[in-house]
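Q: Is it fine to ask for two folds in a single conversation?
A: Yes, each is treated on its own. Send the first.
Q: Here.
A: Result:
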Amino acid sequence: METSSERPGGARRPWWGRIAIALAVLVVLVVLVERFSLLPGFGGLWGEETRDRSGPALLKSIQDMDRYEGAVGNFQVVVDLEKDAAFLPDAIRGTRTLYVGAGTVGGYVELGGLGEQSVTVDSDRTKASIRLPHAVLGAAALDPERSYAVSKQRGLLDRLGDLFSDNPSGEQAVQKLAAQHIEEAARESGLVQRTEKNTTAMLENLLRSLGFREVTVSYG
C-alpha cells in the first residue's frame, strides 16, 4: 500500500500534483543555496554574467569645426518631477521622480563666417583689429556617470503600465527637464562673458606671436 502519494482519506494525489510539489521543493532549495551560500561554490552557478554584444560604432559624418570654444561650465541640478491624475489618489495613479542631473554647457564663438571686413590690419602690420560675433552657448550635455535617479514613486496603474511598456520607468522627462534647468543656469552664470574674454586672450596672444604689437578684439 503506497502512502507517499495518497492524501488523507485514501485518495491518490494526481501525478501533476506530485510534479508541482517536487518543482516547488527544488526552487526552494536553489533559493536557499544561492541566498545563504549553503554549499560553497555552488551558488555561483546562477551568478549573473554580462556580455557586450554591441556592434562597432559607425562613422556617419565629419564636420569641420569653425568655432572656438572659449569656456565650459559644469552644472548640477536636482529635479523633482511629479505627475498627478485629476481624480485619482497618488497611490492609484501618479508618479514622482527625484533626479540629480549633472552636465556641461560650452560657450563658443563662430569663426567660420568671418570675412575681410571683420579683420583690419594697418599698413606697417603692427596693429590689428578683429570684430567677432557674440559668443553663444551650446546645448547642455548630461553626464550619465554623474546623473542618477534618487527615488521613484509610482501609483498602482503606472506600475502595471510598466509591465507592458517597451521602456518602463523611462527617465526622458526628468533628463529633458534637467537639461533645460542647466541651460537656464548657464545663461545666468556669466559663461558668455567668460567665453568672449578667453577668446580675446587667445587671439591677442596668437597675433602678438606673429609680430602685431597692438591687437583689438570687439564683439557685435
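Q: Second one now.
A: Result:
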Amino acid sequence: MAACFTWIKAEPIGIRIVPADTWIDPARPTNRALITHGHADHARGGHSQTIATPATIAIMAARYGLAEGAVPVEYHEQITIGGGVTATFLPAGHVLGSAQILLEHAGERIIVTGDYKRSPDPTCPPFAVTPCDLFITEATFGLPVFCHPPIAEEIGRLLAVRAANPERCVLVGAYALGKAQRVIAELRAAGWHAPVYLHGAMETMCRLYEEQGVPLGDLRPAVGAAKADLSGAIVICPPFALNDRWSRRLPDPITAMASGWMRVRQRVRQRGVELPLIISDHADWHELTTTIAQVNPAETWITHGREEALLRWCELRQRRARALALTGYEDEDD
C-alpha cells in the first residue's frame, strides 16, 4: 500500500507539519519553525519559537537579531515536536550549520533537505545520505547542463591568474554566508597563506565561522590597506561590490565571481566578470539525481529551482514525484 503523507503539506509559504502545528523554513513568522540553514530565503526572524542547529541559530542571531525563542538541536539529536512527530537534524553539506530534517510519524519517514551539496567542503560536515519514504529536495541546479567541476580546479585557476598578474589584485565576488568562507578555506588548502582581504560586509560572517571552529587564517579589511599591500592580493567581496565605487580604490582588479551560475555565459556577461569560477554550494544535476537514487524514496517532492527537468527524470525511471510551488525562495548569488 502506497504511503499517503497526509500529515505534511506543501503550502505557499512553506512546508507545514500538520499534527505538530509546525513549519519548515516558512516565508513569514509562525508560532514554531524548524530552520534548515541561515540563508535569507530559508531563515527569517519573528517566529515565536525557532528550532535549528546551534550554528544556524548563531547565524540567525547575527543576521536577523534572533534572541528569544531559540531552541538549539545538535546533529543526529532526535526531538519530539508534538502530535507524535519527531524531528532529527542531519548534515546537509550546504553551509555552516545547514541541516536536512528527518521527520518521523505514523511509521513514515520524510526528509526535507533545505539546500544541500555532495562535494567536500572544509567549512561544514558532509551531506548524510538517509533512506526515507518521502524525499523533499531542492533543484536549484536541476538541469543536466549544470555539472560543477572540482573546486580545486577552480581555485587553481584563480591562483594561476593571480600569479600571472602580480601588479593587480583579484577581486572575488562571493555570497557572504558560506561561499566566501569556503573559498578562503580552499585557498588555504591550496597553499595560499598570505592575507586575504575582505570587504566590510564579509567580516561578521567570517568572524562567526572562526568562533564556530572553522579556521580561515590571516584575514584583513581591504579598506585602509596600503595599495602596495593589495597589489597581487586576493580580495573577497559581496557580488554587488564587484563593479561599484568601492572596487575602484583597488589596484586594477581582475574581477572574478564564485558561483554555480558562472556555467551560464549570459550570467558572466551580465556581471562583467573576467574570471568566472564555477563554485557552488548547491548540488549539481549529477548530485541531485545520484542522491535521489541513493535515498530511494517511495516519492520525491521537488522545490526551489528547476523542477521540471528533475520531475521528468523521476518519471522516466518510474519514480513517483511532484513539483511544489512555494513562495519566498529566490536565487542566491550561489
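Q: Anything structural to flag on that second result?
A: Two points. The mean pLDDT is 94. The chain has two domains: 8-145+282-323, 151-277.
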